[in-house]
Design brief:
two-stranded antiparallel ribbon; 73% helix; elongated
């Protein structure tokens, strides 16, 4: 019988699922690899957004600071690339941190979007797009912290 986690725990939360699963139905190893795939996609999207903001926005300062707010996403992608290259206890231990970096980057970029709206007359629709995306993503990544933590502990 597998151990079941529930509700909020230190380092993430669970939805009363078996300890060896992600999203209640996916084997945890595959789930973590899928999480990493989406982090890599997000890093590519962040690079594209950075590029387009810097070349299209009148205030280049806004684009540069927005790019800096994406640095934790690139660090998250780096941790998952290292995990894909060599699945060890050490690389698995960095995966919850990678998800935490994603949340941090989402919050910082959202705050910068709010300031950009006020200081640089960036459209309010961009802010609300960021607000919805950041809110949903932060909740998901908080859950993914717990999944990655359980996955890292399963290596022991």
């Amino acid at each position: 019988m597998t151990e079941t986690y529930g509700d909020t725990k230190k380092g993430g939360f669970s939805v009363r699922e078996p300890a060896n699963s992600c999203c209640c139905c996916i084997p945890i190893g595959l789930g973590v690899r899928i999480i990493g795939f989406f982090i890599l996609l997000e890093a590519l999207a962040a690079a594209w957004v950075t590029f387009t903001y810097i070349i299209t926005i009148v205030k280049i300062v806004f684009g540069i600071v927005y790019a800096i707010s994406f640095l934790p996403i690139f660090m998250s992608a780096f941790y998952f690339i290292r995990f894909y290259q060599n699945d060890t206890m050490k690389t698995r231990a960095k995966l919850p941190v990678a998800c935490l970096y994603m949340i941090f980057s989402l919050v910082v970029s959202l705050c910068w979007s709010a300031l950009g709206m006020l200081l640089f007359q960036v459209s309010i629709s961009k802010f609300f797009d960021s607000l919805i995306f950041s809110g949903v993503s932060a909740v998901l990544f908080f859950y993914f912290i717990g999944v990655c933590k359980r996955f890292a502990e399963s290596a022991n």
